[in-house]
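Whiteboard transcription, Tuesday session. T.W. wrote the C-alpha cells on the left side:
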C-alpha cells in the first residue's frame, strides 16, 4: 500500500508540473482570454487515460495504474478520470447512469465552486 502511495505522489507531481507547463505554453501561443490551457490538458489527459486504460489492461500491467493513471494523469487533469468513469458506465449499458453522472458532476461542481466563491467572498470581503 505504501509503495502505491509513493507512486501516486511521484506521478501526481510530474503530471501537475506538466499541466502547469502546458498551460503556460498554450497561453503564450494562443493567449489567455479563454481557458484553452485547461481545455487542452483535459482533452489530452482524457485521450491518454483511454489509451492507458486499454493498454495496461491488455498487457497485464495494471500495477502501473497508481503511477500513470491515478498519479500522473490525475495530477495532469482530474477530468481524465471523470471521462473514464462516464465512458465505463456508458459501455456497461448504463446510459442513464452515465448521463446522470456527467450532469451531476458538471453542474454540481460549477454550483459548488460558485458557493465557495460566495462564502469566501463573504468571509474575506
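and on the right, the sequence the group agreed on:
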Amino acid at each position: 500500500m505504501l509503495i502505491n502511495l509513493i507512486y501516486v505522489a511521484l506521478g501526481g507531481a510530474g503530471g501537475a508540473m506538466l499541466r502547469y507547463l502546458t498551460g503556460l505554453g498554450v497561453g503564450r501561443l494562443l493567449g489567455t482570454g479563454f481557458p484553452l490551457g485547461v481545455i487542452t490538458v483535459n482533452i489530452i489527459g482524457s485521450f491518454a487515460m483511454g489509451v492507458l486504460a486499454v493498454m495496461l489492461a491488455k498487457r497485464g500491467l495494471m500495477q502501473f495504474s497508481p503511477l500513470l493513471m491515478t498519479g500522473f494523469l490525475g495530477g495532469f487533469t482530474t477530468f481524465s478520470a471523470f471521462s473514464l468513469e462516464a465512458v465505463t458506465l456508458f459501455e456497461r449499458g448504463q446510459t442513464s447512469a452515465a448521463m446522470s453522472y456527467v450532469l451531476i458532476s458538471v453542474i454540481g461542481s460549477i454550483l459548488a465552486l460558485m458557493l465557495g466563491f460566495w462564502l469566501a467572498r463573504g468571509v474575506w470581503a
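Someone added at the bottom: DSSP finds five helices and no strands in the chain.
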